[in-house]
């Protein structure tokens, strides 16, 4: 589903991705770990062409993602979930989910926000997957942060993507809610055969939810293997000079990264 070959990306003189090789199959749930600045977000952004890689090969859902002249074709297949869920607060929960369909409906329909009955049914099914169908007609700003993130997942699913890229989807959630959100995402991935690449800062969530873990350090891939196979020595390579075995200190790093902007 995703084939990445010798992918490189530099910002000015700062090499951020240094020859990444990675292949991910259909329906795999891959967690990407790495300390702040390791290149996790840049990798996801290169995959859906929010950032342009400098060299290498990148095939996503059968599309040559580096060479394709219209990134919208790519983005129809690839949904994103962000840390801050990016929902529109004043819209209803269902309308937020249906914005996931905008890439698939005509320009006029999208301007007028006209959705077909089958899109609405799909939106309701996606909300049912995250157990929020009963909130469909409420304003989204009446929901909690965890519920908003579930709306973000439903919106991504409504896009009927082959791939979901989730960039720290649970960084601002308490542990119980974070687990619930990751569970919805993993279940949807398994049941619908969607490939998920999910950036996380929490090693224990990675172990619990990842079919596979990829570790980045300073833009290089330093681990690619099973969750069970991830050893302390691997963690030392992924987090050089840090203790990285429990949930608590690592989310704090991501909050710091956020504060630094
Ligand atoms: N648009 C940009 N312009 C210049 N440098 C950038 C840009 N985006 C990212 N970088 C740099 O690329 C490096 C990797 O950043 P990236 O956001 O991919 O890291 P990350 O692993 O996602 O970190 P975090 O865990 O803090 O989110 C950092 O040194 C960052 O400063
Ligand atoms: Mg990031």
Automatic annotation (TrEMBL):
Entry's localization field: Cell inner membrane
Molecular function, one GO term: ATP binding
A Pfam family the protein falls into: ABC_tran
Keyword Repeat assigned: no
Segments traversing the membrane: none
Domain ABC transporter intervals: 2-243
Keywords in alphabetical order: ATP-binding, Cell inner membrane, Cell membrane, Membrane, Nucleotide-binding, Translocase, Transport
Keyword check for ATP-binding: yes
Domain of life: Bacteria
Membrane topology note: Peripheral membrane protein
Protein name: Phosphonate ABC transporter ATP-binding protein
């Amino acid at each position: 589903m995703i084939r990445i070959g010798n992918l490189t990306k530099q910002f000015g003189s700062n090499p951020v991705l240094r020859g990444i090789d990675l292949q991910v199959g259909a329906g795999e749930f891959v967690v990407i770990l790495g300390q702040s600045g390791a290149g996790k977000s840049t990798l996801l952004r290169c995959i859906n062409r929010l950032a342009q890689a400098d060299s290498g090969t990148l095939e996503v859902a059968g599309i040559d993602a580096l060479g394709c002249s219209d990134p919208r074709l790519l983005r129809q297949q690839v949904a994103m979930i962000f840390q801050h869920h990016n929902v529109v607060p004043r819209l209803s929960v269902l309308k937020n989910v249906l914005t996931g369909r905008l890439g698939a409906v005509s320009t006029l329909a999208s301007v007028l926000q006209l959705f077909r009955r089958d899109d609405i049914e799909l939106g309701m099914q996606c909300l049912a997957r995250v157990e929020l169908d009963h909130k469909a007609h409420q304003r989204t700003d009446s929901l909690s942060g965890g519920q908003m993130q579930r709306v973000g997942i439903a919106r991504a699913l409504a896009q009927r993507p082959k791939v979901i890229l989730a960039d720290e989807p649970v960084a601002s959630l308490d542990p119980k809610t974070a687990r619930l959100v990751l569970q919805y995402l993993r279940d949807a991935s398994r049941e619908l055969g969607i490939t998920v690449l999910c950036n996380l800062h929490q090693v224990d969530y990675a172990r619990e939810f990842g079919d596979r873990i990829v570790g980045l350090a300073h833009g290089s891939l330093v681990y690619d293997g099973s969750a069970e196979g991830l050893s302390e020595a691997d963690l030392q390579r992924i987090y050089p000079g840090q203790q990285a075995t429990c949930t608590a200190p690592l989310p704090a790093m991501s909050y710091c990264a956020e504060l630094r902007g």
